[in-house]
């Protein structure tokens, strides 16, 4: 779940052609048109984020938490009020993720540089406060920062790092690492190394399969998860390259529905792809009215609303409004899986 600059400009005709080449096994045009028109995209009342990211649906509070990485802010979209509350934390201008903490409805962990930081927020005030540093990785790698992070059904934290965008093309170097955090031992466990941009991550409902995106690999990978939370048995679900060539976007954040289909946000692609996790086929293209689509998460009272974050930051070209907005996609006819707070005990 992050945004990254996309190398090279591509005209819209090529982009459209390439996108369509990804959609395998298309239904006939009449059925396809009906299917594509079945969903509705709505812009929600929220600030336009520089780099909106990290959507996390909290079932108990019926709220979507998300962050603006380079806006240095955290947000709570209240479903009942249809209103977004925004806060900053003094001393933390870059915030990579936000995740609620189990057992304390005012506590959240956020990503700050290469640290996991605990903060206190009532969900309404314009200021949140620092509580303590939970842990730190890569203390000497000042050009790195945490990026996307999530929590599995057992309350375990997973997150990865990347080189700062300002340091050069994301495809040049692979300095990131993917970790899980062992709260009982108070240490990070390395799961994968030589990561370009650690991004989209999610689990199937049973929790035995894990899906992961390194944006620089331009694909989605599946892993088996053991009892300790370690991963093995890598399998490529879908490769977004077209005839071996880099597409005009990179895969970014990701979520999953109760049927096991993946929803992959594309930075530079104006699209969330619904992908069959078994066959790797694109089942639906969800179009957004802005290019830089960063992540997605299911929420709402029935977990059937797909919330989508976007970015307004200009990496390669100007991003006019509604870039940076928070969107709700309805009418997809599926339900998501619950998201979980982190267990720090």
TrEMBL record:
Chain spans, region Disordered: 1-35
| Residues binding a divalent metal cation, per UniProt | 53, 199, 252
Q: What residues form the catalytic site here? A: 252 (proton donor/acceptor)
The UniProt keyword set, sorted, is: Calcium, Cytoplasm, Hydrolase, Metal-binding, Zinc
Task: Enumerate the GO terms in the molecular function aspect.
Answer: calcium ion binding; gluconolactonase activity
Pfam families found in the cross-reference section: SGL (PF08450)
What are the record's GO terms for cellular component? Answer: cytoplasm
Pinpoint the SMP-30/Gluconolactonase/LRE-like region domain residues: 51-311
The places in or outside the cell where this protein is found are:
Cytoplasm
Q: Which GO terms describe its biological process?
A: L-ascorbic acid biosynthetic process
Asked whether the keyword Ubl conjugation is assigned, the reply is no
The note on cofactor binding and number reads: Binds 1 divalent metal cation per subunit.
Q: Which cofactor does this sequence's record say it needs?
A: Zn(2+); Ca(2+); Mn(2+); Mg(2+)
Check the record and name the InterPro entries matching this protein.
Answer: 6-blade_b-propeller_TolB-like (IPR011042), SGL (IPR013658), SMP-30 (IPR005511)
> Which positions bind substrate?
145, 147, 165
Q: What is its EC number?
A: 3.1.1.17
Spans of biased composition, class Basic residues? 14-23
**Family classification:** Belongs to the SMP-30/CGR1 family.
Protein name (database record): Regucalcin
Q: Which organism is it from?
A: Anopheles gambiae (African malaria mosquito)
